Amino acid sequence: FEGGVAVLGADMNSAVVELLDEFDDPSYADGADVSARRISATIPTQREQQQYRAGQQNQQQTPRSFLLNNTYYALVTTLPTGMFARSNHLGFQCIAVLPRQYAPSGRPELFLSTSDGSVVQAGMNPSTSPNNGFTDVDCRTKIGGMNEMGQVSPIVSMKFAPNGRFLACFTSNSILTVVSTTFESKILEFDTSAGSRSPPRDMGWCGEDSVVLHWKNLGVLMVGPFGDFLRFSFGEGADDSPNKQPEVYLVPEVDCCRVITSCSVEILQRVPPVTADLLRIGSIEPGALLLDASEAFDAGSPNADEAARSITQREGLLEEAILQCIDSAVGEFDVNVQKRMLTAASYGLHFACKDESHRSRAPGRPTPEAATFVRCSRKIRVLNAVRRRATGFAMTSTQYDLVMPKGVVARLMASGRASQAASIADYLKLGKRVSDLARASKAAAFVTCQSSLTDTQIAEEAIRIIRGEDQDATKPGPSLSSGVFASVALAAHRAGRRGVTDLLILKEQSPADKVAALLAIGSYADAAAVAAKSRDPDLIFSAMEAYERSLSSNEEGKSLYFSGVINKFPNEAVNMFTSYYSRFGSLQGGDARPSINILLRRQKHTDAGLKMAQKALMKSPGMSESELGKQKIDALKEAANIFDLGGKDCAFQKTCTDEQIALMTEQEQLRRSYGSHDVAPPSTSVNSTLVSILKYGAVNPRSTHRLNADVEKLAKKFKVPEKRLWHIKVRALAESHQWPLLRNLADSRVKPPISLKHFAMAAIKGGQSQVEIMFYIDRMQDKNDGDDRYDLFCEAGYWKKALEEAVAKGDGGKIANVRSTCHDPDIQRLCEKYI
Q1: Least confident range of 218-227, 453-462, 615-624, 744-753
Q2: In which element (H, E) is residue 800 found?
Q3: Rounded CA gap, 298 and 226, in Å?
Q4: pLDDT tens digits, 374-422
Q5: 24 φ/ψ angles, rounded to the nearest 5 degrees
Q6: From the CA atom positions of the chain, what is the Rg in Å?
Q7: pLDDT, tens digit, 9 for 90 and up, residues 91-110
């Protein structure tokens, strides 16, 4: 049926398959029954297609396909008709489907004829409908009647009309009945038992008002709307054997029925009503009167003018007569009848142009009838051209209107009649795009079949065809639609004319079509160069992706891919290539080796080493600390080797990497030596490692001397300055509350490398007693330590000592600061005294 396929099995179960595409409503599938299945279309990849053509795959192996983006899909709805048949003790004889555009529910409706002479209607939502969506229309008394044994004759064949309004039913007692889709009215009942008591092999509609039936040895019977019928024999000329009948197939169409045999294709069509009215004997239709007047004028009869003027006396009668003649000419297949009707219409137009009323309404413009005459004349000329035996497009006027002129041109191009398609496109003025594509199809046919000329001559002739027959291929022509030269170049490539392909691709102006054509012929580097010149990153990426798909997926293919992109592709493509893999490798879990290989091939050792070092320092989930540390050290060693390849330009980076490897090695040894993770946490700097070692003394006091020795060893190895080491010790001992060790550190030198102010400040921030704090401040007796002692007294809140220090220095500013900061009244009075 229109829009899909319906199946009735021997077990009386049935299914309806709806074929959908991008033109259907996307939400249509959401309303399907819960039992419906959605099947998406799949196509093999381009590489698999090439392998199959070359015979590289096993014939029993099916290609791995990928899904299309839900552009084409099918909805398969299984209906429980078998259960309905068993519960009602009946069987089904035939089925018919009412397409969804004619069904009230908006979905296909399945009609099944039963063995008891009725019809069951099944909906597409059995899960949510009462009685599983089945409805018995109970047409036993309306269709077929009784057979010789007094039983109801079941329907053995059903067909819906193209407009969905009528249903043709053929019963087992050879009765053809046409009813409305709702089974409320009977349109026709025709008995065929006089010719044959067996059911026809095929039945279909001829347009919307007649039914065509075929019997094997009786030919084709055409039954009209009023019971009129015609019989056609299709048994002649099929074979030299007189007893062998040809196979006959009926193909119902929108306004006719195509009868296909083994030796011919014929069209059965009911005579159009307008033609029947004009050619009926004694007709008084305006068109018939105009036809008689025209033929009388051609015969030289003096009554022609009088007959024509009798039509013009009544307003609007002449225009109606002209349109009737034009419509009759369009619906005719016989060229002589077409000329006869058009001559009559042209004869009437002479009188219409002399009409004063039209001149006053539209001065200087043709009448609507004249415009219709020109348009229909062109249509008739095109129809006659495609109906010729050499073309073989037996189209009716209605089919032409539905397909439209552009569709006719497209079908001619698809059937290999490019020259005729180009002529029709230019003749009908279908637009620049259609004409260009039609000429491109003609040029493609030329380059495919031409073998006696050189590549340059073929290319010049193809360019001349594309630009127009009167254009010189060596001179710049008018602008053409995009993709024209590319399509012809691809045709030349398929024909094996590589020289013609290259010459035609150079003429293509659209970057997108040019890149697509270059990719199709395997010129990936040239495609990337064109994409880079157009500054289109999508095209550049498409070129690289197509190049990757063209190679094998093993290591050799990957190596060829990297070297090909770097050595043959333009810089824009290489930069995008590098950026893509760098971005992918920087993600957690991503593989950084492709980007590193790319950088190494481009002699960018600094960037490659940094990329490897960054990847080494990233966290990898799911690994133990020891495994992770070993993996990082190995990766950093590779980074150091990469930096070593860079020579002097990467000397600083190599030194830093070697030191980081040494630090990580020392940290691992400390963790193993003390059996604790806290002594040297991984991924920490030298300063942080020294702090961690000193802090670990608070956890393991017995190892204090050993820890101090490790600190001195580590600081010496990594050349930590003495002042920085003392600052680290003060900070670590204070944060871990190892105050005795901090005092011992202060006493270890007569003059420490850093000021005792840092010791005192650590004690103050650590909340130590005044005795502990004053232990460090009292040792600050240098003449330059006065300001530091004052600051420490203020920080600790010893305001009296701060005032004494300020008075000793004679600094009024410091005294005023003590008065404003301290809230003790006694101290404030003392400050005012000294101020």
Answers
A1: 615-624
A2: helix 799-809
A3: 38
A4: 999 999 999 999 999 888 888 999 999 999 999 999 999 988 898 899 9
A5: -85, 160
A6: 48
A7: 999 999 999 999 998 999 99
pLDDT in tens, 668-696: 888 888 888 888 888 788 899 888 888 88
At residue 495's C-alpha, the angle toward residues 491 and 496, to 5°, is 120
CA torsion through residues 176, 180, 185, 188, sign: negative
Picking from 408, 364, 360, the residue whose alpha carbon sits closest to that of residue 382 is 408
User: Cα–Cα distance between 354 and 462 in angstroms, integer?
Assistant: 49
Residues 6+ apart with CB under 8 A from 46: 549
For residues 202 and 213, the answer to whether their CB atoms sit within 8 Å is yes
Considering only 80-94, 247-261, 550-564, which range has the smallest mean pLDDT? Answer: 550-564
| Residue at token pair 């063209």 | 550
Long-range contacts of 401-406, Cβ-Cβ distance < 8 Å, separation of 24 or more? 402/254, 405/430, 406/430, 406/434
Tell me which residue of 660, 588, 668 sits closest to 627, measured CA to CA: 668
Cβ atoms of 645 and 605 closer than 8 Å? yes
Q: φ and ψ at 733, to 5 degrees? A: -70, -35
Q: What span, in angstroms and rounded, lies between the C-alpha atoms of 164 and 686?
A: 86
Task: State how far the Cα of 654 lies from the Cα of 652, in Å rounded to an integer.
Answer: 5
Helix (H) or strand (E) holding 15: strand 14-20
Residue 403 in tokens: 């397909």
Separation of alpha carbons 605 and 592, rounded Å: 14
In this structure, which amino acid lies at residue 790?
Y
Kindly tell me the sign of the dihedral angle through the C-alpha atoms of 477, 483, 484, 489. positive
Q: Which two tokens stand for residue 113?
A: 């004829």
The predicted structure's pLDDT at residue 61: 43
Place of tokens 């003495």: 722
| 345-367 pLDDT per residue, tens | 999 888 876 655 544 455 667 78
pLDDT in tens, 474-512: 555 567 888 889 889 998 998 888 898 889 988 888 889
Six token digits for residue 144? 């077929």
For 602, counting Cβ atoms within 10 Å of its Cβ (0-12 exposed, 13-18 middle, 19+ buried), the class is: middle
CA–CA distance, 487 with 504 (Å, rounded to integer): 9
For 426, the token pair is: 């230019």
Could you give the 3-state DSSP secondary structure of residue 101?
coil
Return the C-alpha torsion angle 378, 380, 385, 386, nearest 10.
110
> Could you tell me which residues come within 8 angstroms of residue 396 by beta carbon, excluding any fewer than 6 positions away?
253, 255, 256, 267, 269, 331
**Cα gap 760→795, rounded to integer Å:** 10
**Of 514, 529, 467, 518, which is closest to residue 493 (Cα–Cα)?**
518
- Give residue-wise pLDDT tens across range 775-789: 888 888 877 777 888
* Average pLDDT estimate for 747-768: 87
Q: What is the mean pLDDT of residues 255-277?
A: 89
Number of continuous H segments (helices) and E segments (strands) in the chain:
34, 21
Alpha helices, H only, 212-285: 273-279
Give the phi and the psi of residue 474 in degrees, each rounded to 5. -85, -15
Token pair of 285 as six digits? 């239709």
Amino acid at 205: W
Which is it for strands 134-136 and 265-268: parallel, antiparallel or unpaired? unpaired
Average pLDDT, the chain: 84
State mean pLDDT over 589-614: 72
CA–CA distance, 236 with 743 (Å, rounded to integer): 125
Helices (H), 482-554: 484-494, 498-505, 511-520, 524-533, 537-550
pLDDT at 615 over 60: yes
Query: Would you call 320 exposed, middle or buried from its count of C-beta atoms within 10 A (0-12, 13-18, 19+)?
Result: middle
Amino acid found at 324:
Q
Give the sign of the dihedral formed by CA 632, CA 637, CA 639, CA 640. positive
Contact between 472 and 465 (Cβ < 8 Å):
no
Compute the distance between CA of residue 484 and CA of residue 586 in angstroms, rounded to an integer.
Answer: 43
